[in-house]
Protein 1
Amino acid sequence: MKESEIRERLRQGWLRAIVTFEVAGKPKEHVEESLDKYLENIRTDSRIVFLEEEREEAIAHEDGMFSAFSESELLIHGLETFTWLCVNFSPASIEVIEPDQFSIPAREVTNWLNDLLAKVHSISSEFRDHVGTREHLTLAMNQLIKNAILLSLRQGPKPAERIAGDTGIEAEQLAPFLEHMEKKGAIERSGENYALPK
């Protein structure tokens, strides 16, 4: 894009910024492909124009993970679009180059803040839903484990290692369940063996 076209868009309220995107994970090829797809998804939005882009090959970290970066100079159609980009694509960093100062009508600031609040409320609602789902799944999984222990003990008294073999759950992971069930009177312990109450 010519500098004159960039200047015209800036006069129309566009912003010029350097935005860094990062993708981490493994293997290396997956990280690089994911960054490509990530950037391609952004390119499909007509409110964002890529002016320049610098990419580096994914680098390895000590923990076996890889990270790939892209530093892009972008033209972005207004503050609302910039907020949308930041909220939905979570860049690693941003630097607004132009304009130096903003003169924004109150109505535009109101719309921008309301859009931002709507997104924050949406994220908050999704988070609460996930927490609720996780709690429900945790309760269900705990009950399944307790039932598996009870089924194992129907065959007679057993040490924790044999219960672990029956249930497919490591003995260390079963220990808190066995302790809890013993305290509640659901099972009894005699030496190393656990059994159903008489």
Protein 2
Amino acid sequence: MTFTAVPPTVPPALPDAVEPKRPRGRPRKTEDERDDGNRRHALLTAAAKLFRRQGFDATSTRDIAAAVGMHSGSPFYHFKSKDALLYAVMEEGMHTAIARQSAALVPIESTPMAPLANMRRLIRSHFDTLHGPGNDFVPVMLYEHRSLSARQRTLLAKLQVDYEAAWTPVLEALHASGHLRAPVKLSRLLMLGALNWSVQWFDRKKGASLDELTDACMALFLKES
């Protein structure tokens, strides 16, 4: 008897599995992710306030976390160290100051009085940065600059250059018109130094208003005509 080989039965191929369609756009953020920016800003604000009042060395991350209702280790989710948080406070302060200053200025060629108006706006904006709402950021930079690393100081210096650059053309125009007698560079350094020192003595509750401070600076630094 002859046996005929029967080929094995091959089951039919199964159709490829259909992957579920991905929703268009970015995936939705979780509640924690949505609140991440708010938490970071709250940490920066609390840190700025504590660094200014207690000093950088005397302030712990536990103090900062407690001020915003977080666990003691939570700040490290947003900042890798207290040093990084200090730099972030100063960086935030400078970015805010630059934006405020830029919004305050008018084109210097718009009217003959534009340089004087811009000088007043620069001084007033600077006082807002030092003494207005949320005013702890830049004063921390004035107090704690030496606590930064060399690299952080270099990065921060670039922001300071950007900030002070807006003062030079205004002072140059005032010097050309005779309203400013002193050399431009020295005038800028002396003005900002005097304004910055006001964080040591100014008290809104006891002293003059920011507008009155601005008027006094204009009278002190510039010739009226």
